[in-house]
Amino acid sequence: MNAIHTIDDYEPFIGKEAVRRIKAKARPLHDLHVMHMNSTYYGGGVSQILASLTLLMNSLGIETGWRVVHGPPDFFSVTKKFHNALQGAEINLTDRKKEIYERVVYENAVRNHLDHDVVFVHDPQPLPLITHYRKKSPWVWRCHLDLTAPNREVWNYLVPFIEKYDAIVLSCGEYRLDLKRPQVFFTPGIDPFSIVNRELSESAIDERLEHYGIPTDLPLVVQISRFDHWKDPVGVIKAFEMARKEEECTLVLVGNVATDDPEGAEVYRSLLAHRSERVIVMSVQDGALVNALQRRAAVVLQKSLREGFGLTVSEAMWKGAAVIGGNVGGIRYQIRDGETGFLVSSVDEAAKRIVQLLRDPDLRKQLGHAARERVRENFLITRTVEQYLDLIASFEP
Ligand code: UDP
């Protein structure tokens, strides 16, 4: 059986002093019971974060649980529409949608007895849970979305739920809500020991790529994302098609479909028409493949149109990849344009940066090196753990 990593294991990345500090912050919180609620155990960044965060918190002596709201497909169809609307899309907000949403969350409230010292509710799916408890402890809404320009109608509908929370955590200062609730800003972080991020030998990388028949004769341009329009897979294909007129390369678009995202399968199917010998589109659930691709890619793209944070960006940067990211949301916090990657705002710009990077291995190396340092200093899960500890401690009497 694999051992669960403890904070001491992270010392090579963050140093002795940070380990000591985190342990000291955890000590006064040892007896607490904390619960995280979200809407999927698999797929998407929140489940990746919670998988590492909850184990690490337990290893620090804080009893931290993780539960998932359950619901039928029409519930997740409604919540995905809310998700899209909160990132700025149009929605037809009918009473039927509200009824499905509130009824299924109520059913989950009946099943889940949340009598914890602190409850963290992630994203809009379980948001109304709070209305069904006689609350005796702090509840925190942790929203991971890009809230730069939310649809007002959905926003106004959700505000009464949000206002019941004791605090709100958002990934970036730009997402500050016009609400009189305490707001805290911190980004998530990546776990260097997860399957997606742990060290891989060259032969293990070869083995994964061969297993999926991914050709390595030409440089790889890679984007790894849930199949979601916000990730702009069509823009990635267009940028690649422009770039390959000047530099030979292969595009690999790999994605998975989160269990709370009913639109994913359709987005995936819509991309299949673009497949060719040099455009590989794959829906797979294999963290080791993600790891191998981020390590072997000449260029990693994350050309999102909206992005709450974008763990895939830090994951690739951690591996020393040259990353081109959409100039939006949380990606801007990770990539310093021209220093730790490139930020782009159009297909044209993305294509130019792909060509530039393919032609300049020294630049790739230089950006990749700075990128890894940036992640080490700012975007590892240990820093996220510390920020959760600070937040929990702030509630103590
Ligand atoms: N991921 C994965 N396989 C895939 C696509 C994504 O394991 O095919 C992981 C990815 O490595 C990252 C997470 O899913 O850890 C996606 O998080 P991100 O914040 O980038 O985007 P989200 O899906 O939450 O919008």
TrEMBL record:
GO molecular function annotations of the record: glycosyltransferase activity
Keywords: Carbohydrate metabolism, Glucose metabolism, Glycosyltransferase, Transferase
Domain spans labelled Glycosyl transferase family: 210-374
GO biological process: glucose metabolic process
Any Pfam family hit: Glycos_transf_1
Superkingdom as given in the UniProt entry: Archaea
Domain spans labelled Trehalose synthase N-terminal: 36-175
Family named by the database record: Belongs to the glycosyltransferase group 1 family. Glycosyltransferase 4 subfamily.
Subunit annotation: Homodimer.
Record protein name field: Trehalose synthase (ADP-glucose)
